[in-house]
Design a protein that fits this description.
single chain; about 100 residues; mainly alpha; Arc Repressor Mutant, subunit A; about 65% helix; elongated
């Protein structure tokens, strides 16, 4: 086969990246599964209070918060993971 010009290869690669069907992989659309949790102001207040005391949550505190806030332990764990990343971004931006 004849050689393919570099510009044609770049165009083809760009088309492959933006092709339909890859949106979930690339973060372009909602991933099927649990819908996004909307935390109430009271839930956020308690989660933030707990985060200020300790950035990493233990199993017993996770169970307690889940029961008190009527959330699953997975939701508590995910909230703490996301909050640590937000904290990390904020502290890096402050430099």
């Amino acid at each position: 086969p004849p050689p393919v010009p570099a510009a044609a290869l770049r165009d083809r690669e760009a088309a492959d990246r933006s092709s339909p069907g890859r949106e979930a992989e690339a973060g372009g659309g909602a991933v099927p599964g649990r819908p996004r949790t909307k935390f109430s102001a009271a839930q956020l207040q308690e989660l933030e209070r707990s985060f200020r005391e300790q950035r990493y949550i233990g199993a017993s505190e996770k169970r307690r918060l889940a029961a008190v806030l009527n959330l699953s332990q997975s939701q508590i764990k995910t909230w703490f993971q996301n909050r640590r990343m937000k904290f990390k971004r904020q502290t890096q931006d402050a430099r």
